[in-house]
Amino acid sequence: MLISTGSISLSELSKIPLLSGLTDLQLRRVRKSTRVSLLPKGSRLFTQGQTANRFFFVRSGLIKQFSVTFDGNERVVDIIQPRQIIAESLLFVDQPVYPFSAEALANTDLLTFDSESFIKVLGTSIDTCFKLMSTMSMDIQHYIEQVDYLTMQNAGNRLVNFLLKQIPGSHQDKHSYTIYLEAPKCVIASWLSIQPETLSRQLGTLKAQELIQVEGNAITINDICQLRQMVV
């Protein structure tokens, strides 16, 4: 359940990469149909198969996208983090529906955009059209990489790849780095297509090799270089 929490400035809107090419007039048009909302932890943002008439920008918090299999099990397909956009790729689909369900893993602050109003603005901004295409291309690349390491790699390599992706590009590999898991380990396990007990076992193996330290939701990578060599 979305809770309305206030308004947004043109300045903040303009800092969203997808909207950075809009003029002040275009930003005002977008702002008229934009809602600032809070999605409480555990609340559903949308449900698989629901008409997709809005897309979303995560300001803070965490959202999981998931589907439910025929046998009733939940399969996490993505974890959406701050400054990511959800469902913008459906803007150009006739009679769009959300392909997955989405639920907050933590209290999440969102901007929700009306798709129909945004499409009208796109018609007046070639620059924004190209930015949207770029965003969609990066999303496609992300999912291709996701499919690659879910289908071509074993459970250990999937976990190592996941850990390495949490390290900022600016961090020097010769130094250790601590990751703080915001999503529950069972959700991460589902995202990596492994069982929770397999995730625990793989973490235990890395810990026994003194490559990592685990304390609650904090994972410290002691030897980043060696971890990278494991997935070459």
Discrete helix count: 8
Which percent range describes the beta-strand content?
A: 15-25%
Query: How do the strands of the widest beta sheet line up side by side?
Result: 1-2-9-4-7
- Kindly report the average pLDDT value: 90
> Could you say which structural class the secondary elements and strand pairing correspond to?
alpha+beta
How would you sum up the global shape?
globular
Oligomeric state of the chains?
A: single chain
Characterize the biggest β-sheet: 5 strands, antiparallel
> What level of helicity do the residues show?
25-40%
Poorly predicted residue ranges: none
In angstroms, what is the radius of gyration?
19 Å
Distance between the termini: 44 Å
How would you describe what is shown here?
The chain is built from eight helices and twelve strands. Helix content is 37%, strand content 25%. The protein is globular and about 60 Å long. With 232 residues, it is of the alpha+beta class. The protein starts with a strand and ends with a helix.
Compose a concise summary of this entry.
This protein has eight helices and twelve strands.
Distinctive features:
232 residues; alpha+beta; five-stranded antiparallel β-sheet; four-stranded antiparallel β-sheet; 12 strands; 25% strand
Summarize the topology:
Elements: E1 3-6, H1 10-14, H2 24-32, E2 35-39, E3 44-46, E4 54-60, E5 63-68, E6 74-80, E7 85-86, E8 101-104, E9 108-114, H3 115-122, H4 126-151, H5 155-165, E10 177-180, H6 185-191, H7 196-208, E11 212-215, E12 218-221, H8 224-229
Antiparallel strand pairs: 1-2, 2-9, 3-8, 4-7, 4-9, 5-6, 5-8, 10-12, 11-12
